[in-house]
Specification:
Elements (H helix, E strand, L loop, with lengths): L1 E2 L14 E2 L5 H7 L21 E10 L5 H14 L3 E6 L3 E10 L2 H14 L10 E9 H10 L10 E4 L1
Parallel strand pairs: 4-7
Antiparallel strand pairs: 1-2, 3-5, 3-6, 4-5
Length: 163
């Protein structure tokens, strides 16, 4: 899924296209050592563009209390609209969303993550909470943390769950 806004890109972002991971097929291909289609695309000048990488995103939001069943329904709708979401945990006044994002660099991954809540607030009827935390780590760091026994455990079970 490609995301972008019409018009010229912001200064310093020439040639960047923000993308979001679909159903995880790219991650499976990467695990199996297969090259992702379009990962290293030709730049307009004939040079090669930097390949996209996978980033693990943890987005934390909080705000005024909302009915628990409405928070759950909104997060389920967000997960339905965007199946790349791995897991969401929620309470009446905060939530945490974890997923994989495909982007060229950390800046692109963070930009997409920071837009996620606001862009889907009305369509998924998300609570009017603000983003209070964002962690973006590359795939290697995520797996290193797991191997060393710290960091976020794998998103299991996948889905929307209370804290």
């Amino acid at each position: 899924m490609r995301r972008g806004r019409p018009g010229a890109p912001p200064r310093g972002t020439a040639e960047r296209t923000l993308t979001s991971v679909g159903t995880g097929e790219d991650a499976v291909r990467e695990e199996q050592g297969a090259e992702r289609p379009g990962a290293a695309q030709q730049a307009p000048e004939g040079g090669r563009r930097e390949a996209s990488r996978l980033w693990h995103i943890t987005l934390s939001v909080s705000g005024a209390k909302a009915p628990l069943n409405e928070v759950r329904r909104a997060l389920e709708q967000l997960a339905h609209d965007h199946p790349f979401l791995l897991t969401s945990r929620y309470a009446t006044d905060h939530a945490e969303i974890r997923y994989w994002e495909e982007a060229r660099d950390l800046h692109d991954a963070a930009a997409v993550a920071l837009r996620l809540w606001g862009e889907h607030r009305s369509t998924a009827k998300l609570p009017p909470w603000e983003i209070v935390g964002l962690e973006v780590i590359d795939r290697e760091t995520y797996h290193q943390r797991l191997a060393e026994g710290y960091g976020p455990p794998p998103a299991s079970p996948v889905g929307v769950h209370p804290f």
